[in-house]
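Hey all, sorry for the wall of text incoming. These are the two entities for the joint prediction.
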Amino acid sequence: MLDYSEPVARLIDEFKRLPGVGHKSAQRLAFYILRRPKTEIDAFVESLREVKEKIVFCSTCNNLTDVDPCLYCANPKRDRSIVCIVEEPYNLVAVEKTRSFRGLYHILHGSLSPIRGVGPDELMIANLLPRLLPENNDGVEVQEIIIATNPTTEGEATANYIARLLKPLGVRCTRIAMGMPVGSDLEYVDEVTMDKALANRHEM
Amino acid sequence: MLLTELEARNFRNVRGKTVCGSGLNILLGDNGQGKTNWLECIHILATTRSFRTSKLSESIRFDEPSALLVGKIQVSEDIAHELRAVIEGTSKAFSVNGKRETIQRYLGELHAVVFNADELEVVRGTPENRRRFLDDSITAIHPPYVQTTADYSKIVRQKNSLLQNARDRELSLEKISEALAPWNEQLVSVASKVHRSRVRIVERLNSALAKGLFGEEKIAIRYLSSLEDKGDLNDYEALITERLEMRVQAEMVAGHSLIGPHRDDLEITLNGRDIRKFGSSGQQRSALLLLQLANIEIFFEQRGEYPLFLLDDIDAELDYRRIGQLLEYLSGRTQTFVTTSKESFADEFGSLATIMRVKDGEITPSLSTVQSAGM
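and here's what came out:
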């Protein structure tokens, strides 16, 4: 027998599919929904529908967007000679927050992980090489590719794979640095990061 | 390093609280009373791991939600820290002075080296035990190495999955080489780090062993790289790169990684003969003991203080002559905890020791020795 009437049980099941939501959270969310006025729920449902209907992948950089090409790719002020490769759309946001990068992006939507069945074909890599050609890039030649995948074994393997892929093109390929977070105290940095920072020290 | 007080709640069958002596502590009690459980408590507080089980959840007393271990340590003359370990379900949390710490940060607080029957696997078990022994020794003096070993095993697992898949799908050699390349490139750099660190720790252990820490037996160790007869080990990076390229097909047929330090071993010799094959069980015990003492000395060289030394069921593992030599050596160096079921042991070695009686899980320090713990 079900603990709750069928519609409630089904809602709980749906919530449980969400990442990071267990049974208890799912219950809490379901009862929260039940207590809200209908107009609010309609707006919620509408936003879910809309995100699914209107959001597409940018055909150039794979960013999530409601206009294709996306705002970054369509912006004439961005520097088209430099492309930053990231794993996820929220990584793009992190880079963008610096306001110091004015180039374009390429989003892979994941990183290589044979264990999880993710190979190069599962990443959005196929459209990378074609977009770098000047004829597909408003006539601009790409001078540099910055690989900003995560500093994990999977992110490193992905960076590695892409660097190999780009080698025949002769385009400059760089990897973001790893080490000390800025504005923090040496004391609060974990040993592994400190170790990396020491290894990657530079001349003054 | 000095553990001054120890308390446990809902951990296996143990309960109660005790002060600890700064030198030798003897946990005395009949079999099955919980002496080893108390030793395990100290080990968990020191290393965050049990020396018995990887499933700490099994150590919570039946019908209780969580277990709590508390240890007070004297960091310097005026500074004491309170360490707490809470085991709840499958998770464990560690705190220092009431503040929760990540395991990596917590690990610097206390360190313990253990000698028991299970550890004998280092001397007579499979190579895996010896690799773990070396990796633990390195981590004790260089904590960031934890990440290196974690990365290495992750890369090997990813690579194995790739190789297995390639075998099942019968991919061409060219295709599989291409897919392997980004993993092999990382493997080369991490494997070189592992190799370098292990070779270096073996050198350090050997120079500590050469001092003949106690007794007459001459133990020596040698790192046995799986690439030893395959080329110049001094240029490990070039060698492993070459081997990986050469053996792609073999790795694919095997369906797992064949090249790298996860196939290495440590050779332990007594007077030039392999102790795993030719040593008596007494000699194997001595060898382990000497290795642990070497570990303790290296730790001291690096950190300027000695770790705790835990010896389980000491008189089952060593004869009284060796115990005498050992305790004499340790005195003035480590804070030592030993368990025994023999009253005669306490009579023989207890004169300068703190004796704690363990009965039915409960620990009671003997009255005569309580003052010695106050420092």
